[in-house]
Records
---
Amino acid sequence: MATLQLLMSENLFLRDPQDTELGRKIVQESIKMIDELGFEGFTFKKLAMRIDSTEASIYRYFENKHRLLVYMIAWYWNWLEYKIDFGTQNITDPERKLEIALGIVSEKKMTDPFFPQIDEEALYRIVIAESDKTYLTKQVDEDNKEGLFRGFKSLCHKIATFILEINPEFEFAHSLISTALQAGHQQLFYAQHLPSLTDFDTTKDDLHQKNMEFLITMVFNTIKC
Amino acid sequence: MATLQLLMSENLFLRDPQDTELGRKIVQESIKMIDELGFEGFTFKKLAMRIDSTEASIYRYFENKHRLLVYMIAWYWNWLEYKIDFGTQNITDPERKLEIALGIVSEKKMTDPFFPQIDEEALYRIVIAESDKTYLTKQVDEDNKEGLFRGFKSLCHKIATFILEINPEFEFAHSLISTALQAGHQQLFYAQHLPSLTDFDTTKDDLHQKNMEFLITMVFNTIKC
DNA sequence: CATAATTGATAGTATTACTATTTAATTTGT
DNA sequence: ACAAATTAAATAGTAATACTATCAATTATG
């Protein structure tokens, strides 16, 4: 099987972590560690110890741990967009394309053999718990100018386009999709930690099925009526 | 005019900040400072300097700055619930109640003369930019056991009840409302910082009007069809 | 082969988030 | 009223965090 590499925006790193053994280890292990410790509990010092390197070496790849998080989340959005491009190939019906996209957004994430160096299951848990922290900062405007959020914006725009193909009159295509993308994560977090805020049930095995149903109901009903 | 005081859950503080001059100053000034510096840039040391007190004194009221944020956000949700109770008084039609609730959620927040000690405009900006950080932590389950999120859950449940009065068959009442409550803030943040993720425009004065239209369209369409 | 550039290691610093202890003020009982 | 008890506030710490500056080793290039 061919091994792929997502093209990441230059500004996401100081030195491309895909280029060196150490760089790949930094990304691989930080995914595991942020998943285990949470973003606040994670430090470059702990990571350095785990990969038998030093803080200063890690700082050569990423300006700080926030940038490393942004890199990981950007990778995730790029990956989703690639999966949606792949999944909607040769399909012309916009309703079907929208359905496929929402299916991919809400489906359970498994390790993708195309990207053997990334633990997608751990990354997905990070996305659910930490992704909002990439932009909920005082430097959001500068970060945005550097293009750090291009992945999320691009994905949002792509799916919003499907909506506008279905109903060009609909006024809130981008708002609805950014809402749906966030809701897809949020509801899983709530299901696990604050269950009274959802109607999902983590103990049942149709969790991701319900999530998809919810998103599809919400999006299609909202644009149609 | 009568001055009110919202009843805050005991676990939100070590010593009730409403009881003393210092306590009230801590809450008042920290609202201003978190609004200015962001939650990450805010420290108890800076706050102590500003109110001419000491770090240790502040730690007598709040275990740490995270708890102080949780307190502020809980106050906000309690305030909203009070406004919705007030606004839906004597109204029996569930559709009208839902409409009123979503109106209150999305309306521009002004200083409330009933609570002269709180700067609601600054607090609203904090809610938009920081509220997710109250639960996106590794201690969310312990915090939840202590009842720190009761305000948000209670509000969500109240509005979800309106939905179930309209359509008892609807499967995702809680999910839809928690999604709408978050979307109402998120879209305003996006409008200001990542405008390609919304269809709102901060330069126009109908921003909050659009936000309400969006929430009402989304919620009513989703539950009706 | 020499020089430059890159990579990694060592050792620091300012700040943060707290805590333990001491001092001062206030309340309470007699 | 006044000492004892209680509570509040100030002082002075500490361990950990988030970096940074410098130095040494390795690799690449003319």
---
Amino acid sequence: MTEDSEKPVTSFDVARRAGVSRSMVSRAFTEGANISEKSREKVLKAAEELGYRVNFMARGLQTRQSNLVGIVASSLDTPFRSRQVRIAAREIISHGYRPILLTVEPDDDIEQWLSVMLNYNVAGVIVTSATPSPKIIQECRRLRTPLVLINRGKNQDIADTVQIDVQQAGELAYTMLTRSGAGRLAVVHPQTPSYSVTGRAHAFADKCSSENVEVKEFISANQSYAAGYDIGGNVGLALDRIDGVFCATDLLAMGVMDRLRADWNVRFPDDLQVVGCDDIEQAGWGAYQLSTMRQDAEEQVLAAVRQMSERIENPEMEIQHFNQMLTPIFRKTTLSSYD
Amino acid sequence: MTEDSEKPVTSFDVARRAGVSRSMVSRAFTEGANISEKSREKVLKAAEELGYRVNFMARGLQTRQSNLVGIVASSLDTPFRSRQVRIAAREIISHGYRPILLTVEPDDDIEQWLSVMLNYNVAGVIVTSATPSPKIIQECRRLRTPLVLINRGKNQDIADTVQIDVQQAGELAYTMLTRSGAGRLAVVHPQTPSYSVTGRAHAFADKCSSENVEVKEFISANQSYAAGYDIGGNVGLALDRIDGVFCATDLLAMGVMDRLRADWNVRFPDDLQVVGCDDIEQAGWGAYQLSTMRQDAEEQVLAAVRQMSERIENPEMEIQHFNQMLTPIFRKTTLSSYD
DNA sequence: ATGAAAGCGCTAACAG
DNA sequence: CTGTTAGCGCTTTCAT
């Protein structure tokens, strides 16, 4: 703190000042190292005076590990995603790692970025956006870098994963709608195939088929509010033939609702019941009060970080898959809750 | 790619395989190094075959710099903040750095985290949440680590900053409201002092005073939707004495609106005009159509990253302050726009 | 254009 | 409990 030297201060400087060896300096800054309390204090004092701080690059080089953990996420400014990332960052830190963030834009080459992360000797990577190619997944395995995929499906049995149970999701949506009296159903979901989003929509449609209830399908451009607003126009045209709609994301649901209110003066749930999915914060806002299915971001991220830690401890561990259940949230866009 | 050895492959292995020295391997992976095209290709080929990748820790140790840039952000799951972070991450990457993310929770000790970042020899830090203490700011300067503060005010002339012009913001809100016919004004803002948020509210109140128009003040618990919903109860009680309200954040505004609609059946803008601030995505949603003032996250972040880069290039550069202007966005919660 | 040699700052055996 | 001795994997003069 006091010095204002040009050269950065190293453990050597501290050692000299404290009158000990460099090893002692290292030990003083290492949890549970073999060092007497007296020496440690002496070192810490000298370090403080010199304004010393451990160089993590050097430490990492020696120990062969940075304690960096990569987070790969796209659409970071989407409510659900940003919540995931916030929780993930906090959780990663509380496990003693530092999150290094890779935000992926639609046209980005994940391979390349993921590859860069590996250069940093990351302790692990958590991916919650596009699915990396098998090639890069292999590369992670080769380097023994734990990789966990969130909501990318568990079909590929080569990485640990955490995902919602799309089957259960689809059936739950069906149940929520039918038990509150809806019988002429519809579903809106994006075109782009995605394990969790289109997956639950399809599961819903399948459930309808297996129960012999017809279901109208509306395909949106993507899973955003704007896309919901757009497709809402089509839903409006079919208003006389449906009384309940499942939207694959809350954002989509809110877009649909606003469009329907604006152009058809629809009242919810009287004119139409709607169920969303995710339970983002906005779903609870007064203007929507959307009935939905909660995808617990906290549970999901905790599971992912836990899987990662476990694999760090034991790289040979068998591949794990965590299946997450959604829970129904009844608000004001469905007529009644069931017990 | 082919090997499956236990030991990580190093530049030494590649060198041997390519029949050159380790220096050549290094050069092959360095932009614009002095190496013949032929040698480079030979090395690259050997590297590919071995599955070699440069160890950034070792490189960083040698060159004394990681190309990591820290982002310190709180309330990451707030719409405006997550947008900032997404843009910042993209921008940092496009400048050739990697973003390392520190999410700060209300009770966290920023000092400590910031301090950890310094251990990584970060090339720079961008802070967009709580203001670091002068002590840590000093520490950054001592270590010659560029630090730029977003929306923390420029009072402290010891770090580069980017912030909105609170004065202009307050006056703009006043103008938007009065020019569309509101004359009995109110402002809602959080208690916690914050440069940008409470700053603009105060500037608004000051402007009112200087124009001799009375202004009712409502203090919310924080700047969230929920806090807006709460304080909306108080606004409702004063409905007969106000016709225009400025909410210090869009979130607050939307909370207030929903409460007012729910409990007092208020119609906007007929019964009350409202202006928010930030222009988050939700402000444009059909249920709100909030008139607001846009705080351009992109412009803000680009400026911050630019300042950082410039300071990396030239550490002795004079301290810079970028003052951002807000632009009015007229939607449906004000009666008219002015030309 | 290339190779040899000397570290970057730290930790981890190994002795004592 | 402490000091000595070797590197970790890379870049970088400095010769050639």
---
Amino acid sequence: MSITIKDIAKKLRITPTAVSKALNNREDISEELKIKVRKTAEKMGYSSNMIAKRLVTKKSNTIGVFLFSRSKYDIEENFGSQFINGIIKEANKNDYDITLFSTESDFLNKKSYISLCKERKVEGAVFTGLRINDPHIEEIKNSPFPISIIDTRLDGKNVSFISSDSESGINEAMRYLWELGHRRIAIITGHKYAQVSERRFNAYQQYLVEKNIYDKDLVFEGDFTKDSGYKYALEIIRLRNIPTAVFIISDLMALGAIRAFKKEGLSLPNDMSIIGFDNISIAEHIEPALTTIEQNGVAMGRAAIKAILDRLKGGKLKKKVFIDTKLIIRNSCARVSEI
Amino acid sequence: MSITIKDIAKKLRITPTAVSKALNNREDISEELKIKVRKTAEKMGYSSNMIAKRLVTKKSNTIGVFLFSRSKYDIEENFGSQFINGIIKEANKNDYDITLFSTESDFLNKKSYISLCKERKVEGAVFTGLRINDPHIEEIKNSPFPISIIDTRLDGKNVSFISSDSESGINEAMRYLWELGHRRIAIITGHKYAQVSERRFNAYQQYLVEKNIYDKDLVFEGDFTKDSGYKYALEIIRLRNIPTAVFIISDLMALGAIRAFKKEGLSLPNDMSIIGFDNISIAEHIEPALTTIEQNGVAMGRAAIKAILDRLKGGKLKKKVFIDTKLIIRNSCARVSEI
DNA sequence: TTGTACGCGTTATCAA
DNA sequence: TTGATAACGCGTACAA
């Protein structure tokens, strides 16, 4: 089989202990021996066995990541790929491995997320796309190891909530619309299983209430799909008193809405101003180029890992971490024409 | 610490061996004991330790996945997320874990991909986005364990090549253009470090050569970015003899090209027919809705894992696996007007 | 500075 | 059907 420290010990006529120490660059071993050991290790093509190391040190150096997706395009549309990038980089940088799970695999039906984690002795876990009606939610709340959940807030002694600071971005967006003269601003939210829906709606509502222009008839509950954007855009222009702007809480729905508006003959952005949320890669390519609130997915992924690692190092639990969002102004909003 | 089989053995006054057998549902143990063991295991909150199991069985049940990305949007734009989905599902279905690595992590600079794999005793590895000028390419070729590479062909005794059957899709696309009356068909390819560029170009060229309408002046080498699509679209309409159609080998570049064409006042699709490649999620939302060749990313991910698993089970190495592509006809191509 | 002895949690082999 | 023993590859006290 493969070379072990025993083999190289035998070759050098020393003990495995000495080899182990040399390879781990311990203080209590001579430079001379270290060099010799390293050289023959190299020569023999030795590769350390992390499995054995993890067993003996009782430390897996592993973080579990759960990616929940439903439709074919779900991950890309939900920023999952950016999260993943941030997660891996931050983890690897700190010498942690990522083991990835996805829903829909029979795996997850047989066993709970937490048991999967326990068996692998992961030191922490990250959840993405978790729904608040997930059957295993209670277990997650009581997790014995640190957990970071992206975009879903859950109370639990070990869980951190990682999300965009949507409030700030939305405030900025609403002020922008306000300054453009908009007074009737509709919203298309997401389904109620995603907390981001609620949070984004609240930020929207709060601003409008303060300005005294909130109108509940301008609230439409979509479900994050393009189709729902399309559908509610249609409803919006059927209104007796049509709004001059819509805030659509995901770019994807905004895409659907834009299509609907165009199909109905509206001239964009003059007949309707639109602000999205996410800044997905094609937002700048559609017609009109979409003004939207940008999320920093990579930073969110990194923050998820950081929260876990901090806690593992004995730090205090960060109940929540918010990542800045910012308004990206393009061409989908116009000044309200004075009549 | 956590409960082990020893603990439950002690409690039941039997040996760990018996517990192990019971828990693994072995034949040589009484039903009675099995039930008793399972019950107390449950009661004590026992969770098996895969690390120990993997050490003793000398089987990691793990596949390493390397995701190479460069830009912020790289993974989503390169279909990485779909691959990942297919990979995880197929792996988990077969009781395999995925451990994920990404480039740019200091990790990969310190150690080669193969050593990372060896240390973790992964049974196989999948590469996505690998460049043929990668410094570790030789090592990959000589890998002792099975490797699946998506979209990059490499000769090696253990490496499988997983890719889209772009030939078939492109043929279909070219025939479609031909039947629409197009005789001057340009192409915008990708950079030469990606083999998909070459393969897609070859398929394009072959068809046109057969029809005797190939013109090397209509070939433009982009680099998969939106900007390069934009840039070469501009060059195309500066041609003395403007083509009536362009085949752009990635939807993303097609997006850039469409923007350029529009900006220059072309009416699409009448002034220029466009066919993309990938069918990314927004292809249907741009104006005009993009006719493109669809890749099945999920199937590719699954195939990558299947190739590894088959080989692990003693099957023959599949040098290459091609996944069907198909032409998705939308509104970006028009019949050539007869003058 | 090096070596001895042991243990991590589990499974495998063989004996009882 | 169950148990005793050893082993997987490595790290860590502690002794030499």
